[in-house]
Amino acid sequence: MKTKFTLLFAFVFSLTISAQKWTSYTTTNGLVYDKVTSIVIDNQGNKWFGTGGGVSKFDGTNWTTYTTTEGLACNNISSIAIDKQGNIWFGNWDCEGGVTKFDGTNWIKYKKSDGLVSNNILSIAIDEQGNKWFGTNEGVSKFDGTNWTSYTTTNGLVDNWVTSIAIDSQGNKWFGTYGGVSKFDGTNWTTYTTSDGLACNTISSIAIDKQGNKWFGNWDCNGGVTKFDGTNWITYKETDGIINNNILSIATDEQGNKWFGTISGVSKFDGTNWTSYTTFNGLVDNWVTSIAIDSLGNKWFGTGGWSGTGGGVSKLEEVISSINAPKTENQTSFSLSTFSNPTSKEISLFFPNLDKYDLVISDLAGKIVKQYLELIGGKVIIKTEKMESGIYLLSLKNLTNGNIYNGKFIVTK
After folding, report:
1. Residue 351 CB: number of other CB atoms within 10 A?
2. Mind listing the domains of the chain with CATH numbers?
């Protein structure tokens, strides 16, 4: 049987297909401001976006805006964190706003006069004991709900400009600063700089993966990303595959992939291979300031440089389908044919022979949209008029030999 191929739809043996869907959100459809600095996701799946013009909450359908009118100390949000009680903590920058706590109803503001070392907040983290750690431009402040304790270069911190905070499984706090990295175990301080293995002392972001490796993003020094396993240091730069050496944000997903937001787009690293995404692929803007990953594995990218126009939020849905149908000597290599693809009204799917098949069509979130059982090859017409625009995945099972063939088609309106 002669193999047939069609544009955007090809099946081959032992192939992995990665289907992606990009969705962007800006002020035109609910976001309060297009310059997005921070993202957190609460236990209900709501996304909270800190911006230069306030906070936007998105439940997947509805948007809610919070500004100084509602209770924020300042609309210029630098960082957000959520504690175990569900309280949202908003850090402000360049407006003397300090920190604002929101429990869903009440707003409480904390400033230097209350115990913060500075009113300019750069980063927030919350430990297992519920202590809040605030990185500022004048050091770090710890708040246990009653008492404030501050740390600066006078008592262990390598530099007072604290851009990022991460907490490891042993409870150690890792502070990224503009003078290197400081580790604090609650008693002792350890300093790491370029003399120890960092590519650069100007740290913009920190993430810790499941293996306990620390990933340090560097800023404005051509440093790229440095990985530290507790003993060894490895640095990755543009020459290795990352899209830009100026790192703004880092996140790790459930599969162990690392995602690096840069000033030129996003790079994904699976430990071996690098994949980069820009506005060409679907990002709303290449200046990726923040990354969050929801319970479904969707990646949310906050974007927007502080100079120029552009910005917003981009959501990436990734579905990876693995085809595992090894060819034997008695099998003929073939592919399925579809017409026409992309489509707006219907698509015709041609099966390779007259065996029985089950056909399942799902969206990128894994929701089954259509299902056809015990079809006889070789043709079925799929009506798409009532389907939303997007990419859909096909899973076709041959009930005679058990082979499964996966692919995709596109609906456009």
Report:
1. 21
2. 18-321 (2.130.10.10), 328-411 (2.60.40.3080)
